[in-house]
Amino acid sequence: MSSDKIEILANAKINLTLDILGKREDGYHEVAMVMQEVSLHDTLYLERLDAGIELEIMGSELAPDKSNLCYRAAELIIEECGLTEGVRIKLQKRIPLAAGLAGGSADAAAVLKGMNQLYQLKLSEEKLCQLGARLGSDIPFCIMGGTMLSTGRGELLERLPDFPEVDIVLAKPKVGVSTAWAYNTYDAGYEGPHPDNKAMIQAIGQGDIAAASKLLCNVLERVTINEHAIIDQYKNKMLEAGALASMMSGSGPTVFGIAPNEAVADRMAAAIRHFDSEAAVFTAKTVGRNRG
After folding, report:
1. Which of 138, 162, 167, 235 is catalytic?
2. Are 14 and 168 a contacting pair, CB within 8 Å?
3. Is the Cβ–Cβ distance between 268 and 257 less than 8 Å?
């Protein structure tokens, strides 16, 4: 008999690369990106219920209703597996909203994995990813974690060697960026660098942090910086404080910096806080699937 209650962490992600290869017939964009799990996380507490879904959210203004990805993930598992019982979910948010860090996707992935464990459903990781892809393109990555090459609309994943454990700083300015706006603005005409995913994968395979740092590239970064100059200012502050490299994650607006050590990470975080008292700033580490 499984436990009636479990606690599960939902880790955020960053993009080490993000390339857009074109628009698909289904309306999605064809992407190729190297994604990396990081230790900044939300915490979920799942408890068996006789029936129904109850959702409580702490630390966020998110509505705890059927529009929430956690609720939809629980609903999908109940329907797919024919469960007559339900689940109570308490979500403690830490990952900022609309930040390019896949916070909502990570929470949904945690619910899928957590209910699989809670009810001993014995669903394979592949099956969980198939279910997750029905809810959002980033959810399969959040289920699998580690370091991955993501293609298709983001749901096709290839396991890469773990990126070495490094200290990172994540900083989100108090601006909002619509993912749809970022992609549509990119479509209107992008002239800029594209990532070298092959070289990035080689650097990761060799555990070469310095080389990987030089290969960070996100085609949406310039698009978003043109609208929100503060992103570029965050990058410069991190670099001045000693970051090996700094880049925007996803469609933004969160900026991350790779630090050579924890002391420099602390200095980078302090520099951002001094520059912008409204910034949401976190220190974290890269997470490897095969570490720990």
Report:
1. 138
2. yes
3. yes
How far apart (Å, rounded) are the C-alpha atoms in residues 134 and 250? 20
Q: Distance between CA atoms of 129 and 44, rounded to whole angstroms?
A: 19
Separation of alpha carbons 56 and 87, rounded Å: 11
Q: Which SS3 state, helix, strand or coil, does residue 103 take?
A: helix
| 19 among known catalytic residues | no
Helix spans in the chain (H): 69-81, 103-118, 125-133, 139-144, 179-187, 197-205, 209-214, 219-227, 230-240, 262-275
- Does the annotation count 198 as an active-site position? no
How many angstroms separate the first and last alpha carbons of the chain? Answer: 27
Predicted model pTM: 0.94
Residue 172 and residue 170: Cα distance in Å, rounded? 7
Q: Which tens digit of pLDDT belongs to each residue from 42-77?
A: 999 999 999 999 999 999 988 899 999 999 999 999
